[in-house]
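Students often ask why we bother encoding 3D structure as a string. The short answer is that it lets us treat folding as translation between two languages. Here is a chain of 471 residues written in the first language.
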Amino acid sequence: MIRPVKMSRLVTPLTNALPSWVTAQRATALAVFLYLTTVRTWGISDTFWLLGDQIRDWQLALLPFADLPLTGAPSSVGGVGLGPIYYWTLWACRVAIGPWVDYLPHAGGIGLSVIQSLADCVLLVAIWRKSGSGATAVALTLLLATSPLDMALSATIWNPILSVALVKLTLALLLLAPRRPSLGWGIGVTATGWLAVQAHATAMFVAVPAIGAFIIADLATRNWKGASQRASASIGVVLLLQVPFMLHLVLRESADAVSPTAVIGQVSATAVAPQTLRVVDAFAAVASATDFILLRPWTSAGTAVVLLVALVLAAYRCRNDVALASASVLPVVTATIGFSFWQLAYDQYWFLTQMPSIVLVFWCALTVQPRAVRLVGIALAIAVAVAQPGRIMDAHTLARLPAYGALVTGSTQIYRYTNEVTEIRTEFPLDPTTDQEFLFRILGGRVTPEARFRAAIAPDGSVTFAAVPQP
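And here it is in the second language, the structure alphabet:
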């Protein structure tokens, strides 16, 4: 009779042969990081999404650090971001990655993809330690990170993506927090949470519960002194992070020029007429965004009902864990309340910063029964693994500019032939906001009426020149 060999007898010799610093968590996190970075940046040099916003932001990233804005990117609802973390990060991407790709803008997409993947791996480790299940950690991380819209936007230059990465770090710190977190731990949560708000204002609905988590825990145990110290420290961190923005107000612009006029107007109007609050519509918008961003290709008309049930179950699961509730349930609740003041249409990308919390809500709901943790983790891992090819293919149809590779090739050929042209035309359609001469200028070329040639770029990147008659 052949006796079955225990898996531990096979695995233990292998793990003992590894260096002491190599653990299952670290090895898995490294593998996931390499995988996510690869799928996010695959083909980026040929299909980078180069529209007007990306051109504007990369032009700023090419400036010396001292010349960078002290605010964030312009907002679609008026005003600008509350701090410069986005432009400072983009500048760092240009410095670190730019030399390898001739300082072309897809360097920023690569840099933000790397940052996003690093944040995913920190969150993976946090979920692993919180759940005790590696399968659960990998499944939830891949469910979140390989959502087609998130994956597509991660490989471009856009401030909400940096905000999502910082939100993930904030939630990871909450999940990793010890039972009695130090004051410094709370400062770390406040810093990452508020920097996420600086990158995109919708992160406010995650940052507020996160910053308040440890304060609420101290208040619940009547630790008045500890709560006061944490609150004071958090206020101090926020004020410190707002110094660049305040300097901008003092030195360069009035408050009216940077204020979110549309948001202020909507909130003011709803406050005057509270019967116009759109709580149901706001929750429906959260559910619709969950369906579109997170769950593709498993979309369903009943996502709102599923999310509502999940929130109730997750709230029960987190009833004795303030940090977990602040990472999962509370951000969704605050987002629903906050967006209920908005009377116009909702943009689905506004809810990108909510997706990490919604993933945790689903996990908490599915593991109300502790004995289900392992089974749920294995089932989720199988489902997410099966969906990977379809999700990746879907991502590569979103936020792409297929003509980018031809622009890069053509601009490079033009610069090698001459560093001055009167104009560059393309023999293929481009978005109206895409400047076909932008890459040529980055390479060092000049577009001037006095040049001897004009150039045209074909769809395959080849270039034809025409002499310009000289006066």
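Translate back mentally: The beta strands are 420-421, 424-426, 446-447, 453-457, 463-467. Keep this in mind for the problem set.
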